[in-house]
Amino acid sequence: MSSTYPPGPRPAHAPPAPDDPREIGGYRIQARLGAGGMGVVYLAHTPGGRPIALKAVREDFAADPEFRRRFAQEVASASRIHGLFTAQVVDHGADDPVPWLATAYVPGPSLQQVIERHGPLPVRTVLLLVAGIAEALQAIHGAGVVHRDLKPANVLIAEDGPRVIDFGIARAADATGLTGTGITIGTAAYMAPEQALGHAVTPATDVFALGALAAYVAGATLPFGAGPESAALYRVVHEPADLACVPVELHDLLERCLAKRPEERPTPAELIAAAHAHPAVGPAPEFTEGWLPGAVRSELPGMAGWGRAGSTGTPSLHDRPTRAGTVPTPTEPVPEPRPVAHRAPGPPPARRSRRRRGRTALIACVTGVGLLATAAGAVYWLDGTGTAAAPSFTPGYADVELTAPDDGYEFDLGAGKVVPAETADWYLSREKGAFVLPEEADAFVASGYVLSPEDCERGIETEPVTSLTLDDLADERPFCVRSQDARRLVVARVVEGAPGGGPVTVVLSQYRKDD
Fold this sequence. Notes:
Helix content is 23%, strand content 23%. The protein has helices spanning 59-62, 65-78, 111-118, 123-142, 170-174, 193-196, 203-219, 229-238, 251-257, 268-277, 294-297, 358-364, 453-462; strands at residues 23-24, 27-36, 39-45, 51-57, 89-92, 100-106, 155-158, 161-164, 183-186, 308-309, 340-343, 371-375, 378-382, 393-395, 400-404, 409-412, 417-420, 427-431, 434-436, 442-445, 468-469, 479-482, 488-496, 504-513.
């Protein structure tokens, strides 16, 4: 579904926590942008006033000699990358007691956020993104670096094109004792077969990821399906990509990118040429006004509250900005749930009878039965004749990001805030690796990455779930919870959290059922 903020200014960055450093490498820390599996990322400024993203590595990584050695090598390589479609490395302290890295700050949403809010993008936009990202890969590969975790969350959108972030450091973590023998760092839905199997990665590995990324952007569904990571990895290795939701005119190009054999995939230069030669791009392949749909373009000006910092590696040092209403989290970084370490895939487990893959396809592929649309903040379904039906839900609060530090807090779904445990009537509470719901409340977990309130209600009636484990909610898969009186719904995503305990961050949007 498409969602927007309510009227008013966008939320500001969170101030540094009391235990956060006030200065790193001579740069004064001004705000905390987020935390992830590799450490904490802060907003700082150069002496001349330019904003930068400054990432401080976690202490356990910093204490590993092999990681430090590889980190220094990868930072040196990343510093040689000067592509216009990448976030530049500004400075680093690879030899400091706590290693850090400063990169250009990009004040725009990630491609993942764009698709979640607006659905699939037009063919011309997809082709221009492919060309821009391929040019970024040329710069990355030219410096002797393989990205290893190219995905929509690692591509930021600016007025003048995409910016690829988080390149290079994956190999530093991948080569240390902090991972394990036979384990590979990456994100299952975008891994190439050779990477999933733990074999050597090459620039062609990133081309495969770009093909998977483009398929998701063009169709709003994952080309190798959702579900458990082990099942996705199995399909990556053994099954063809599902491009049913992708416009037919993109199939040939994406199928070449998604070839199982690396040598059969096109080079970034060939991708750029193919994108520019496509009739949808025409004689002006530049990122000029109109390259983005109007709804996406309207979000870009004044996006400081959305800025996700440029980064250089996986696991990511940050995920999302901390928003107003967030309970301060401990200074120990929140372990990032994805990307994760994967073992080589075996046969996929049997599918759950209560979960299916058809719901996202119904929305994103436009089967002729219905199409989700938005207008003035209300949600409509177009019937088979293209006539807009009356909305059945009225939005309440939207895209509220909240963090519960531990099991002593719960999410008050009615008020959209964090409260002490056993306080709210309609709540999400945390118990070990799962959420606990009130009695008489219903829930549904989407099989894809788009979930409307209408879809939620149908899912609750046909495929209700009785368990909401963090493992099932990986990769920010949306889920919903209906109130005990069946009059209100909340659509939610887990942004950060670990099954073993500790802080958990969710994004919530509430809807009220109309009379």
